[in-house]
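Sample 3 of the quickstart, ligand zinc ion:
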Amino acid sequence: MDKKKEKKDPKQQKKLWISLIVLVILLALLVGLILWMSQNKAKEEEKTLAYTDLIKEISYGNIEKIEMTVGSTTAKVKLKNVEEEKTTIVPNTESFMDLVQTKIAEGNEMELIQKPRSIWLQIPAVFLNFLPTLIMVALFIMIFKMQGLGEKGKVYEETERKTKVKFDDVAGLEEEKGELIEIVDFLKKPEKFTKMGAKIPKGVLLYGKPGTGKTLIAKAIAGEANVPFISMSGSEFIEMFAGLGASRVRKLFDKARKLAPCIVFIDEIDAIGSRRTSNSGAETENNQTLNQLLVEMDGFGSEETIIVLAATNRPEMLDKALLRPGRFDRQITIPTPDLKGRLAILKIHSKDKRLSDNVNLESIAEDTAGFTGAELANILNEAAILATKNEHEDIENEDIEEAVKKVTVGLEKRERVISEHDKKLTAYHEAGHAVVSRYLPTQANVKEVSIIPRGVAGGYTMYKSDEDKYYVSKTEMLEKLIALLGGRAAEKLVMNDISTGASNDIEVATKIARDMVTKYGMSEKLGPIDFQGKEAYEIQLFGENIGDKIGQEVKDIIDTAYSDAQHLLVEHRDKLEAIAQTLLRQEKINEAEFETFFDE
Ligand code: ADP
Ligand code: MG
Ligand code: ZN
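Result:
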């Protein structure tokens, strides 16, 4: 404080006292709130599970129990084969609840416990919305004034460890590894590069679907360079307290500076780094977190050997500021593995498993086009479990094939009782898919048709995926739609009634048709314009009532495909009947049997 100001007039002194008292009260509130929060959260903070990982586990059916408090964004998760409960921060609770409830409705054995709000939250809504915001705004201002006070205590938890993962553990992805090897060199011998005046990227963004190995490859870089791996997930930065997200980022980088050379890995960066658009509360908070991240990344020079790796599966969501030079100026796409990659991944993950001689990994790799590394690893794990269940000496080929089906369509449920009517409906539905796709040149061969319930499906038609395609043509997409709607068309044609069994087909078909129009620019009328992820007003910029036209186009595409499917089935009604009847008799038809219907 300034010497001159020491002689204050009483008014000023009074002011100082008042602000001190206010500060003390606010601090007490802050402490109270933190204590209250930590009471609820202390345990949960110990083990966290990234949101994307939770979604993965749900789809694998590995969840035993999910517990959520109404109005909270944290879910307590109990995995089937893990002792302790984990917590996950759920970005959108509403859609997450929807997802869980649908999964349960579909027959997944998991328990959902919805806890009522605590008494605190039962205070009338207006008050509820009003009071915490007020306190938080006040706190926020105070925290900033007091510089760093808010950072005391356990406000974040990032994991830091030396990983043992090496590039050899990452199968396929040879080009990507080739690109990343220079980062390993840099982490090992930074002087070599700086002497040369070379600028090494500070940040590398890894784009790719969940389970493609982004985390794995990031760990492998740290492992190869033998440096610490500090990681945090974007969703963990999203905090109730304004300003804490930013403070977490600051602490993360403080730690990184101490441990340098090291790798900082930010998973799900889209959670904080999505485009700064509106000014709503949550957005502002995110902005601060994002701004802090940008400040940190701009702040360290090349003397500090810190490489920031970040992963996302939604690159289009990211704020452009993240991609500027000196930040994440290098972007690497981690693709879903091609045939060679899948084989390599299967080989790596079967190394520690006992495979029987009859296992043909090549053919498994052929059958799993579109699968990610995580799904392939999961298949081998499932196969090992099935082999144990079936009391096989080693993992047999049939165990793996069964595991593939389990992962794609769910577990076979022979014991489920089905009425004759439902059985017939399913038989015609599946035969409809199979027959229609048989007459569509771009569609893959049928590998198996079954009316044995599996997972949520009453039956299924499996196709042989013999190719990895990078591009899909319009014809192919149109024919895919016809094949998808073949099930519903057959129900209508034969039973003159339609069922809910086609809901998934319809969902997929609608998405394809919408993507064709709004993403791939395949509509003649609307032209090659990307309408996806645009706000209504942005779409309006392309012309009057353009939203209606998009809807109309999507509908036209679907309608045409549905009527094409019906025509094909009317024309080949004999095949439809023969296959459906065979299905009713023997429940399953394999590839060779299926082809016999089309001989001559
Ligand atoms: P992402 O971070 O992209 O969601 P992960 O790196 O977490 O995916 O991958 C999950 C798991 O899947 C890994 O732990 C590994 O077992 C397996 N996996 C994925 N890709 C590969 C790969 N290319 N090689 C070997 N295993 C892989
Ligand atoms: Mg990951
Ligand atoms: Zn279907």
